[in-house]
């Protein structure tokens, strides 16, 4: 045997430990909150009840779409809100835990702007790269101009996938969960996808973290932890990182190990974002024929984290081609196991850009004597009405919040001009506000009435009003 000893030992250990690791991975993830499985390697993690038999899985899955062999063991968590970069990093990225953010894309200008007509009129002459609908890596169609693509994409067997043009980026809002210099400064690439659906990707990995943002259409995303890499025959594929298994009809006679795979399933609808962890196998399917648009944002995980916590040397990439010595699948599994091991010690992101002091902001009370005054709804009087300050109401008095053009507004009323805490002024304002749908009432009236004693308020209600409707 001419294997260098450490490698031999390494492979041997992996063979021994991998099955345990896989079962633990599943049970532990599946039992969030339960205390029966405290460590990835505890006994209780290995118990695997109510499982399907191999025969049952074969019947369900042979020559059927990938994932038919068993129901998903994990439905990807869906959050109805966006989260901070710190929370995203600590709870999902550092743990390689997929997640869906519902509706997060609906605020993007792209969501409403990117019609075929708009894209044609704006970027029609730009050239984009194409792929085939069934992700045939061997027969990639030539790139073409967008207007050509748009005139035929409903018919032809191709879809568009290329970098988001610099000009198009102004229509994309960087999701909050990435807005941290420790994340976004590592941006690597962004992809724009467009098709009419009926597409199915291969089962593949990307070496970057990925937020797949669905602008139009919807997709099913199946994800498989790298601990199952060898069950996807990762070492036998023609291109490393792209499984040769046909995900539309999985041949379980040829690839029986697929039945050992547990997978995560996410249904990602229009406006949603799904996080696909780095190195995770995934398949993206848009079954229905429906206009599909997506943007994928890829970034590199924080390198300091990758160096954090362990002495163990990571991937030994030099030997990848020699499958006898080095198994790509085992290296991926080892990598994922390492990520899971150190995830608890991942350092908190600082996101210094977000750590502004109160003193970095301006407050209304900071206004200087001659600073421009604002109306109640925040607009600048000068900008909105072209008024100079001392033209307001013909006096030098601060303008009030009520409709300036309404001569009945309380600001013009004598009792209010004298003292706007005067009970006559309050009564006048009450009547005015019963009569006019004036935003000033919403802004000012509560202030005027604040801290009135109820006796005083009763008095105001009883008193003679100086307000006359017409
Ligand atoms: C594309 O090029 C053609 C011919 O040069 C021109 O007429 C058309 O306006 C261009 N379209 C866009 C969107 O720039
Ligand atoms: C795109 O715009 C060109 C004019 O620039 C027009 O001739 C063509 O029909 C348009 N294509 C589509 C698919 O709308
Ligand atoms: C993960 O932790 C377990 C238990 O501490 C250890 O046996 C295993 O070797 C670690 N795996 C890696 C890849 O560091």
UniProtKB/TrEMBL annotation:
Entry annotated with the keyword NADP: no
JmjC domain residues: 150-316
Gene3D superfamilies (alphabetical): Cupin (2.60.120.650)
Pfam family, one: Cupin_8
Keyword Signal listed: yes
PROSITE patterns linked: JMJC (PS51184)
Signal peptide: 1-24
Keywords: Signal
SUPFAM superfamilies, alphabetized: Clavaminate synthase-like
InterPro entries associated with the record: Cupin_8, JmjC_dom
Protein name as catalogued: JmjC domain-containing protein
Species for this entry: Porites lobata
Taxonomic classification: Eukaryota, Metazoa, Cnidaria, Anthozoa, Hexacorallia
């Amino acid at each position: 045997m001419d294997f260098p000893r450490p490698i031999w030992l390494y492979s041997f250990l992996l063979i021994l430990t991998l099955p345990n690791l896989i079962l633990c991975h599943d049970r532990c993830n599946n039992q969030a909150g339960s205390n029966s499985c405290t460590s990835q390697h505890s006994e209780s993690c290995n118990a695997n009840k109510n499982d399907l038999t191999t025969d049952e899985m074969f019947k369900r899955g042979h020559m059927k779409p990938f994932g038919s062999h068993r129901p998903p063991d994990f439905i990807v968590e869906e959050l109805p809100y966006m989260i901070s970069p710190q929370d995203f990093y600590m709870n999902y990225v550092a743990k390689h835990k997929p997640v869906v953010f519902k509706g997060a894309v609906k605020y993007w200008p792209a969501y409403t702007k990117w019609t075929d007509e708009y894209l044609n009129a704006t970027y029609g002459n730009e050239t984009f790269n194409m792929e085939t609908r069934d992700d045939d890596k061997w027969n990639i169609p030539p790139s073409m101009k967008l207007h050509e693509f748009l005139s035929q994409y409903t018919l032809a067997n191709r879809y568009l996938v290329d970098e988001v043009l610099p000009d198009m980026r102004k229509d994309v809002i960087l999701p909050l969960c990435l807005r941290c210099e420790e994340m976004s400064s590592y941006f690597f690439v962004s992809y724009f996808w467009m098709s009419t659906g009926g597409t199915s990707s291969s089962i593949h990995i990307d070496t970057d973290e990925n937020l797949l943002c669905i602008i139009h259409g919807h997709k099913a995303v199946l994800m498989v932890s790298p601990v199952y890499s060898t069950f996807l025959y990762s070492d036998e594929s023609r291109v490393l990182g792209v499984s040769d298994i046909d995900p539309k009809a999985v041949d379980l006679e040829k690839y029986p190990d697929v039945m050992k795979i547990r997978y995560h399933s996410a249904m990602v609808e229009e406006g949603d974002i799904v996080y696909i962890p780095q190195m995770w196998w995934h398949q993206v399917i848009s079954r229905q024929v429906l206009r599909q648009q997506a943007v994928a944002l890829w970034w590199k995980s924080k390198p300091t984290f990758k160096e954090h916590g362990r002495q163990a040397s990571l991937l030994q990439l030099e030997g990848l081609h020699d499958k006898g010595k080095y198994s790509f699948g085992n290296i991926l599994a080892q990598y994922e196991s390492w990520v899971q091991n150190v995830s608890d010690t991942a350092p908190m992101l600082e996101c210094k850009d977000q750590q502004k002091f109160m003193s970095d902001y301006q407050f209304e009370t900071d206004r200087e004597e001659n600073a421009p005054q604002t109306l109640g709804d925040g607009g600048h009087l000068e900008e909105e009405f072209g008024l100079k300050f001392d033209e307001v109401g013909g006096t030098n008095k601060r303008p009030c919040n009520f409709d300036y053009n309404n001569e009945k507004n309380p600001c013009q009323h004598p009792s209010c001009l004298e003292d706007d805490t005067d009970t006559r002024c309050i009564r006048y304002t009450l009547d005015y506000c019963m009569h006019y749908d004036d935003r000033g009432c919403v802004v000012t009236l509560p202030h005027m009435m604040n801290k009135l004693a109820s006796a005083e308020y009763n008095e105001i209600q009883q008193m003679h009003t100086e307000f006359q409707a017409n």
